[in-house]
């Protein structure tokens, strides 16, 4: 079969590749070179910020244009280095061509808050708000409140919350209430948290799912399941019903607290009573339980579908890879068929685990057939999928098929990685396919110029 495939490739593919080689490589290099150069600059600058003691002097030697996007990406890449990030942000502000936006400002404030460097954070907030007229969004102020709470500074969390309208020009919206609620619950101040909920209701703010989830998760994590149930019942009596049912919140709270068996038991009781969990709750259960008990998740999936629950895309994102990894390929096919029948087009990260499972079982013909079917019915394969398939073919000694996929992905505008070229070239030479190996090498040279 290998000889037949190589003859077909040599007979039909060679003229086509010789005709299109220059146009393909030109398209690949022009499409990826500018983007690769841009991210290479960001990577280089980020390394300087993280590791160079004299980073300002080194950055001044670089001939780069300081833009808001560049500053934001570098700050995000260096979020674990608060002091160096602040030095870089102050260096960028000295450039006359650069004017900070709220995106970079909030990123550096969040980085400093999480690192417990509050003095530098407040000094920067005063400078930027005064000189650049920028203000923090509710989400950024909420991150500051949560950072104080995570570091056991509850009093400071309350101060930031109370002074946010005047000090930070940020109204006390629902995200700020939820952030302070999380800080109080993190420090086990449940009476204060419940008083904050009552204050929220007096202000006319309706709690959202986050509000309920914070309290229920906190109570469940401290073994106070009864208090969580009473809170949900009281809120329902007052007319503030949660966006999802109380039992779903309790299930998620038990999962977050680590009481997996209790959560599974509660879901079983719901199904026995003819009730189905919310899709989000079901996905949370499957994501947690599938790591240890895939059979339970598959059975639960069929039971809730029989009761009328409509799974969403996230359900299949969790189930299909877990089922494929456990070796239940037939069940993975069944799930994918259900996904397609629901009107969706499978994406590469969904059908790649099935292909990998087939290859691991040695069913390469089935894997190739299924891959061809997905190319026709699903979203086009991406570079990681081709890399995985080429690697699996190489490990099984199917170097001619691997070479064919290298040519195919190149024609689609995807650049194979160097490891794939080396593996396929060496394998073809070892099995006597020198002409095909030479053409693979020529393709690599034309793409990379090496």
UniProtKB/TrEMBL annotation:
Gene3D superfamilies (UniProt xref): Tetratricopeptide repeat domain (1.25.40.10)
Keywords per UniProt: Repeat
UniProt keyword annotation of Methyltransferase present: no
Chain positions of PPR repeats: 173-207, 208-242, 312-346, 347-381, 382-416
Tagged with keyword Repeat: yes
Entry superkingdom: Eukaryota
InterPro entries given in the database record: PPR_rpt, TPR-like_helical_dom_sf
Similarity remark: Belongs to the PPR family. P subfamily.
Record NCBIfam families: PPR (TIGR00756)
Name under which the protein is recorded: Pentatricopeptide repeat-containing protein, mitochondrial
